[in-house]
Amino acid sequence: MDSVRARLEAVTPLFLAGADPRGKVELRVPSIRGVLRFWLRALLGGVLGDSNLDTLRQAEASVFGSTDTGASPVVLRLVEEETGNVSFSNIVRREGKHYSPGIAYLFFAARSTRDEPERQAFAPGTRFRLELGTRPGSGDSAGQALKLAYASLWLLTHLGGLGTRSRRGAGGLQAIHEDARPGDLPSLVISSKEPTQLRTEFAEALKRLRSLVSTSRSANPSSPSRFDVLHPAVCTIGLVNKLFDSWHTALEAAGKTMQQFRSRHNPVHRAAFGLPIVFRSRARLAGEIHRRRASPLLLRLIRLSGEKYVLVFTVFRAHLLAKGENLKLQGRPAIVPDLTIIEDFLKDLEEKAGPLLEVTGW
User: Fold this and answer.
1) Model confidence at 357, in pLDDT bands (50, 70, 90)?
2) Any long-range contacts for 137-144 (C-beta under 8 Å, 24+ apart)?
3) Mean pLDDT of all residues in 165-187
4) How far apart are CA 108 and CA 106, in angstroms?
5) pLDDT grade, residue 185 (50/70/90)?
6) Where are the beta strands (DSSP E) in the chain?
7) Residue 287 CB: number of other CB atoms within 10 A?
8) pLDDT score at 115
């Protein structure tokens, strides 16, 4: 097999643009390729470990290329099929009537500011066609590269998202059809109708995806890991055992819970959810060296085959900042928090949204 074609649909608003982040919405191949690289790196790190970065770079380059090794053996082609746009204000005020504070909190970076207009998004229901193919003349290894690229796409469409606020439920892409898939890899299309079935579907798929990576040099990652790694020792994947009627009601429930939880904790502890933290006074909490750190907690929605929605979460237990680096708040050093606050948030989510089901055995 030299290509895989899938139809993808945005199940939550997709905030993505070109050179102007607040301009016209635009989905380009480089955006997808960049996120696929992230998930491939997480998959590789979960099998090969996180200590030998040169080995990991070589394995990643064998799929998506690099300046040293040349072009990727995997070619991506993207076609917009059915598109529609929606503004941040229309997202948080459904039909201009009901304000949704939870969603406004999750998507706050898309709001208008004193200096910039609000962001536009591809509306839920927007569809794209994506093809993964092998580059002509790329050699015998192209088949394995295609399988690993497909595995990265599975992870993106089940655990991750694309664009701004993708770790807070935005930008969820889901496959609604695939022409074929390489080997015996798991389908991109969700078949489960209940949360418990989805948990089993996830566990079986993750085992198969991890088996793709060569185990001749397998190693366990450090704990906490050096970067986001898909390994049960440093990554928790789970879902809320509750069916939601729409993406809107699901994210509103999650957003309200997170807003109320974070309001009870001081800014230094909240840093565990990602950096920087900017206050209304323009004060900023960030690392001494690294100003930004993506959240270790990823929230996304999965639409089941019965058209109901389930909230899925992934927690990466990686170092928040580089070893020896501290936080700075208004120029003063602050202690780097651990991730126990995220575990406390999940307990809060369980109390308010529904029982949590952890994906195990992968």
Assistant:
1) very high
2) 138/73, 139/73, 141/62, 141/73, 142/2, 142/73, 142/74, 143/1, 143/2, 143/182, 144/62, 144/212
3) 94
4) 6
5) very high
6) 3-10, 74-82, 85-87, 93-94, 98-99, 120-122, 127-134, 173-178, 235-240, 277-278, 284-287, 297-303, 309-316, 327-329, 332-334, 356-358
7) 19
8) 86
